[in-house]
Amino acid sequence: MKTLSDIKKIAVLGAGTMGPGIAQMFAIGGYPVTMWTRSEETREKAKATLYKSLQTFVEEELLDASKLEETFARVSFALTVEEAIDGADFIQETIVENKDAKLDLYAKIDAAASRECIIASNTSGLNVFALIPEGRLNQAVIAHWYAPPQLIPLVEVVKSEQAPQEFADITVQLLEKCGKTAVLMKKFIQGYIANRMQMVLNTELFYLLDNGYCTPEDIDKAVKASFIPRAVVLGLCKRADFGGLDMTANNYKNKSYTPPEPVDMPKTLAEHVDAGELGLKTGKGFYDYTGIDKQELLAKRDKQLFEVFKLANKFLSDPV
Fold it and tell me: What is the rounded distance in angstroms from the CA atom of residue 284 to the CA atom of residue 231?
């Protein structure tokens, strides 16, 4: 029977948005990590991103300064999939959400990976179990991280129907050893937990905006001053317990809430996208970022996220 102690080496396939942060957390957990990237340019960018993030962890007292260089040294880079996964006991795929790209990568994994390793995907929207070669499904799990992966604690885990339960359990244990908050799902559903919750919120968000009930600023102020900080303490299910399940039941019986009809594309969202207003990356979205230093703003965001999640982790370790 495979156990966590059998995981000696990790491969992270993909060095773009998610890869460096994921590799960082495995390295902080003490594991040697080999990252695969297609080009030397991407490799050098990933190295710089990784090192800068480790420095931030030192500044935030989440990593001892004396451990920075040895942690950074645990991450090596390969320009071929075969080199990256050679000898790997755990493979974390983090490439773009594109069906053809996934099929191509999994064909390469199928040709070269060990028959004993765990093969994990970071896919957020695809049913990757339909793309993985059938003969590899008994090794397949999903470990879905959230961006930025070195900051957001959550990783959602679900195994394929063919994989043994121990593979899911080992994945959870591995993630927890590396400082993550892992949630093991009983079975696969697209969107997992957090993304499905966010989609429900987005449906209501755009309904309120499209129909002129409030402004984006109103929505952000309302949620930041109410249920979002409360959820750090109580979550959603325990909040219902504290309020009384009879009250929740009465809300359904009394038709206190009528959900909006689904639409193909919210009007407010389409207007911003058609105008090229895509958010921070274009300088304007719901808010106007003209003249603002983006790197300074991102650094400020990260500092505030560190503070929030330090508090959240404190409450998670001592729940109500």
Answer: 29
User: Is 182 in contact with 157 (CB distance < 8 Å)?
Assistant: yes
List, in sequence order, every residue forming a beta bridge with 78; answer none if it has no partner.
36
Please name the residues in contact with 117: beta carbons below 8 A apart, sequence gap of 6 or more: 85, 88, 89, 90, 91, 139
Instruction: For the chain, give every domain's residue range.
Output: 4-184, 195-317
Question: Has this prediction a pTM greater than 0.85?
Answer: yes
Query: Any idea which architecture 195-317 has in CATH?
Result: Orthogonal Bundle (1.10)
Under 8 Å between Cβ of 278 and 285: yes
Please identify, in words, the CATH class of the domain defined by 4-184. alpha beta
Asked whether the beta carbons of 36 and 78 are under 8 A apart, the reply is: yes
Mind listing the pLDDT tens digit for each residue in 123-159?
998 999 999 999 999 999 999 999 999 999 999 999 9
Q: What is the mean pLDDT of residues 150-177?
A: 98
d(CA 278, CA 260): 25
Average pLDDT over residues 235-256: 95
How far apart (Å, rounded) are the C-alpha atoms in residues 121 and 93? 5
Q: Closest Cα partner for 318 from 251, 233, 261, 206? A: 233
Instruction: Evaluate whether 238 touches 320 at the Cβ level (below 8 Å).
Output: yes
- Please give the order of strands across the beta sheet that includes 75-78: 75-78, 33-36, 10-13, 90-93, 118-121, 140-145, 154-159, 181-184
